[in-house]
Amino acid sequence: MFCVAVQAGVRRAPLRFVSIFALAVGFSLTAWTPGAFAQDKPATVAPLKKIQLTPAELKEREGRKACKIAICDAYHNHQPGPDVKCAVLKSWRKEQIQKKIAKGRVSWPWGGVRCTTNINIERSFLIDARLKPQFEGQLKKHTVDCELARGGDKKPYKIQITIAPKVTFEGGKAVKAKIGWGKITAPLLAKGALWTATAADNTLNVLQKSVVEDINVFFGPKCTEVADGWKKK
Question: Fewer beta carbons below 10 Å: N end or C end of the chain?
Answer without folding.
Answer: C
